[in-house]
Amino acid sequence: MLNPRLLLLRLAASLAVLSAPLVAQDTAAPLIANSGMETDADADNWPDGWPKLKDGGSWQNEDGNRFIRMTSPSPGAMVMLYTEIRIPEGTTALELTWRQRVTGLKRGKQSWFDARIMMEFMDAARGKLGSAPKPAATGKDTDGWVTRSASFLVPEGAAFLKFMPALFNVQAGTFDLDDIALKPVDPAPIKEAEDAAAKARAEKLAAQSAAAQARIAAKLDAGEALVSNGNFETPNKSGDAPADWGNGLTWGKDEDTGNRFLRLTSTEPGKTVMAFRSITLPAGVQAFELSLRWRITGLKPGEMPWHDARIMLKIKDAAGKELAPAPAPLYSRNNTKDGAWVERTGTFIVPEGGITLDIMPSLFDVKAGTFDLDDIVLKPTDATAIIAKQKAREEAAAKARVPVETDDKSKWPVPIKAKGNRLVTVDGEKEVWLQGVNVPSLEWSNTGEQVHKSVVVGIDEWKSNVIRIPVSHERWFGRKGQTDGGAGYRKIVDQCITLAANRGAYVVLDLHTYRAPKDEYLEFWTDAATRYKNHPALIFDLMNEPHGISWEIWRDGGFVGEKTDRDEAAFLTAEERAKAQGFQSPGMQKMLDTVRATGARNMVLVGGLDYAYRLDGIVNGFGLKDATGQGIIYACHIYPWKSQWQKMLLDAAAKYPILLGEVGADAKKMTFMPLEQQENWETWTPAILGLIQQHKLNWTAWCFHPGASPRMLLDWDYTPTPFWGQQAKDAIGGKQFPPPDRLR
Known about the structure:
By secondary structure, the protein is α/β, with parallel strands linked by helices. The protein is 24% helix and 27% strand. Strands 23-24-25-27-31-32-33-34 form an 8-stranded parallel β-barrel, surrounded by 4 helices. A 5-stranded antiparallel sheet has the order 1-2-10-5-8. Strands 3, 4, 6, 7 and 9 form a 5-stranded antiparallel sheet that branches. The chain is elongated. It starts with a helix and ends in a 12-residue tail after the last helix.
């Protein structure tokens, strides 16, 4: 039977632990209970309210005085007495006092591997707050017991103090702690002392920086280079590396010329290889030019767009704080041609207060590669042109900015459906003739290039009632160097749709892919159709340009093998071409069925073969079936090298709704096919516009961008090109063109 007296003692001990925790609730009481570590009411041989240590901790009794001892159990081990102390509401400053004794201390490998008390503030949800108190560190043995204190301000919103005495990765040592007390104090003296110390530090740094800048200015006046040994010819004292560039770098040499250079080589995929130089900038210089030569070989970029060969630049003030804007990095994702050296130059403005420039050549998380650098020169330059360019960029960005709009369904267009070879509204069957433009760049960019502005201008100024928006399924899901899973990309597309719909226009959402349907495209349409199902403005363009397959595979699916037809998509990379063959295709009917399985009744746009030009197969029995939707529009992409208009386009247009999803001509003929096969724009442009109007074909002109051929724009002021943009704008606006003199 348990001794009644012992039972009472254990009950009292349990109540003591519950009623007298380390975190005291009464603001009048000490913030740390049992600060002297004398009480052990629960008889567990550890002071009440203090957390037990797994290793390296003991409760000591020395001449009747009790204290906690931390002892390093092995070299490099961490021993920490972690606890959280509640801070009374309204506390603005605290004073910590304690006694400590440090014996047998041997620091670890880093300077901060010592005996220390670390502290951090947390909010009520235990989220970390800034402005942590400076650690109370001890790097050597004390002369017996010593009393220490620290006072610090409490940041707004702080509810807890993380209290962490530790032997921080030391080689050996003992850290004794006793009489730990924490109390609120007047913040005024602490703030005054901190302000005075900050002022003194700032004055000292300013004086040091001024002296350093004066020395570098004198060197510059004497004709010395700002970047010493920028040509890497001078060896260090041991003769195995370039002087002034630190240790551990490879000093390359061209055997033929004897020229020395810096070489960075990726030795492990995904691991950054970097050199570093910090250069003091002379005072009073507003702008600099950085020039160099580089050679890049065997480069395989990493997963993100910035995982490449690059020179990162940062400008810092006297206190070492990075200043904005930072100079733009010089970078490349490609090898230099034929392994030759190439020259690169960049200019930048020094932000106010800039003292030093950090130059960081690197292979940044690449999969493989070698990056050679030579002749790095930094010199002052005229700021006028740089500032003018920067101002022009800022003005262009401001002009391109479009206020964010929310959905205004009262202005949205009425949903459309197919009726014979026409498009009509689903309510009163009013005929709708779609005429508009393609707004590209989201197929090649995660953020697009002025897409929102282009949507607005295309509708408000060019009078389009439809906008075709090419998108990438990989970017949609965040697989092209994005860190948000594509959320930002989808938000951009959402806003394009809202801007168009709020202006009463329709949107063709174009999955901008090639060759044949793939299972990954089904994944895209399951998500996109669910997101936009039954949106009255949306038309789903299932796939940009099918080609190089039979009509059977186009419709029903099958194995897509090696291409045998001529590849007109000369802009595709070798990787993209490889991905376009050697796979099992689900077929276009499956693509349509996938959209309908989401419950979306939206019209779908389906391109034929020969890069969405040929529609003869549709006429000959290969059309798709749509039992539950608002119908199908067949897409035809027509350019000045396409022939047999009657067979490939007009026969289908007599039976089905047609949209010329891409149509246009350029003053320069395409180089990926015989020039004689291409008609001049002077005769082709009016002929195609006359054909469109004669047969009332729906159309979206390619391309509402100054850099994507056939381009409709000369610049981002939306100046139309004379060979296509102006005529297309006129036609959308209602100008009549005569029927073509002949069918091509």
